[in-house]
Amino acid sequence: MNILISKNPPDKPHDVIAAFQKNQADYEFLKGLSSVFHEKDFAGDAKEILMCYGKDPVQKILMLGLGESKDSGKASQYFRSVIYQNRKKLSETIALYVDHLSESLIYQAVTGTLAGLKLNGFFKYEKEVIPTREICIVTQSARNAQIIREAMLMSDTQLSMMHLVDLPSNVKTPEFIANTAKASAGTHGYTVTVYDKTELETLGMKALLAVGQGSIHPPYLIVAEYKGPDTVSVNPVVGLVGKGISFDTGGLSIKPSANMGYMKSDMAGAAAVLGCIEMAAKLKLNIHMVAILPCAENSVDAYSTRPGDIIGSYSGKSIEVIDTDAEGRLILADGLSYLIKNFNPAHIIDVATLTGSIVQTLGYHAAGIFTQSDDLAKSIMEAADKSGERVWRMPLWDDYMTEMQSDMADIKNLSTKPVAGAITAAKFLEFFTENHPQWLHMDIAGVAFTDTEFTKQRAASGFGIRLLTEFVKTLQPQP
Ligand code: BES
Ligand code: ZN
Ligand code: ZN
Q: 119 and 237: one domain?
């Protein structure tokens, strides 16, 4: 795909894509492109489509509705869906008009259009033939051109991280994730250090090792670091931690087989965090960021950790493993402790497909956020508003901690009572943050891997990459 930003549409025959919000439509420029378009035929309702003919060199015009302003966060999905469904009808040269849209919609128009033109079927023997398309994004404004360029960078990162989440777990081992991180770092200008099993033993990452010990694919710890170009003002550190379970069988507390295959997506937190550091490097943000990705496969084996086992951790605290399926919090505990001890971060955000409980609570529409800091909650909610991803704040009262106490160890990995599972999981993580005042946990179990209109099964959503990127942008020193 060849994408260019231009003040003028192509001279050669081409199709036009233009999107409009309901009741805010300004069709003036369209009238110059088509003599058959009538305003009464198109209202701008969400996902409404009108395909009409244009005047030479414009062939077809694909108009799509974006609905009302309150739906504007979903615009990227609408673009992706409509363009994916019409991809075979669209010719090889396409002009996308954006200047009549808000900055937020322009960003989503670009990410949605590019995602819609990308096809799946990666492992199929016979692949759909993808024409080499030329996409010309038409704008007269230097500011809009800047937004488009950033959205193009974001689209590439989102699509490659979504691909990583969609990959099957026989391909996407912890080692594969580590190699993916190294490749991204080499391409985009940040550093990645990878610790293998032997090094993890030396470091004392006992909780991560305990989760990975039942798999033939050994665990890895990935430590990525990015420093902005302005080296004087690059401190303090923002630290991100992402859950990287390459497959979650549940371990000996094995999951039911129905839908177990979805657990290939249990590394979506790691992918979101990796996507964020890749974006920070691409945008050359003036921040100092560390991303920690503890990666392991939670498997069933004679070597697997058993329910009832008491394990150690990087922090020195002991953990009684009540349920081996509550493995995410174990590897995150080591990731958080490692981050705090070695990098002294000013802000900490961990991202994880952590609990079925958050899916019960918020469904597939929002991630749960947990923090004691009102400021950090506010910043993340503002970033989410900007990116169109939804988050909802959950409580972290100490009452929830009483059910996590163990008779023999410092903490249990599962609450005694089968209630409020997302909150008790967050309390477990808090225990390993040394009460850091600027820590936030984001449970993305309901939103990372979902039904879509463009796939027959569930697929990665890319949730969190743009949200985290918008957040870390705000940490740059103000000029
Ligand atoms: N990876 C799962 C959580 C999950 C559930 C992610 C659904 C995406 C969709 C996690 O490791 C897990 O198994 N959690 C258990 C915890 C329980 C044993 C306390 C759960 O939520 O059922
Ligand atoms: Zn699990
Ligand atoms: Zn899991």
A: no
Task: Kindly tell me if the per-residue pLDDT of 349 is higher than 90.
Answer: yes
Could you read off the pLDDT of 10-54 as tens digits, one per residue? Answer: 999 999 999 999 987 778 888 899 989 888 899 999 989 999 999
Do 245 and 340 share a domain, yes or no? yes
Ligand 3 (single-atom ion) residues, CB below 5 Å:
245, 248, 266, 328
Question: Is the CB of residue 260 below 6 angstroms from any atom belonging to ligand 1?
Answer: no
Average pLDDT over residues 227-234: 79
Residue 361: CATH number of its domain: 3.40.630.10
Convert the pLDDT of each residue in 272-293 to its tens digit.
999 999 999 999 999 999 999 9
Question: What token pair was written down for 265?
Answer: 């997506």
Gap between the Cα atoms of 286 and 232, Å rounded = 10
Q: Which of 71, 74, 449, 470 is nearest to 269 (CA)?
A: 449
Catalytic residue list contains 329: yes
Q: Does a structural domain hold residue 212?
A: yes
Can you tell me which atom of ligand 1 is nearest the CA of 422? 21
Of 92, 453, 34, 473, which Cα lies nearest the Cα of 276?
473
pLDDT band at 233 (very low <50, low <70, confident <90, very high): low
Please tell me the distance between residue 396's alpha carbon and the centre of ligand 3 in angstroms: 21
Return d(Cα 368, Cα 427) in angstroms, integer. 13
> Residue 361: in which H helix or E strand, if any?
helix 356-362
142-166 vs 103-117: helix crossing angle, rounded to 10: 40
Query: Which residue, by CA, sits nearest to atom 8 of ligand 1?
Result: 445
Residues 182 and 274 in one domain: yes
Task: Answer whether residue 145 is part of any domain.
Answer: no
Whole domain around residue 396: which residue ranges? 158-474
Burial of 45 (0-12, 13-18, 19+ CB in 10 A): middle
Is 147 a member of any domain? no
Q: Are residues 221 and 292 in the same domain?
A: yes
Q: Is the CB of 414 under 6 A from ligand 1?
A: yes
The rounded distance, in Å, linking the Cα atoms of 341 and 333 is 12
| 225 and 363 fall within a common domain | yes
Position in ligand 1 atom list of the atom nearest CA 425: 19
Please indicate, yes or no, whether residues 108 and 171 belong to a single structural domain of this protein: no
Nearest CA to ligand 1 atom 19: 326
CB of residue 325 inside a 6 A radius of ligand 1? yes
- Considering 80, 329, 412, 466, which one is annotated as catalytic? 329
Distance 447 CA to ligand 3 centre (A): 14
Angle CA(8)–CA(10)–CA(14) in degrees, nearest 5? Answer: 135
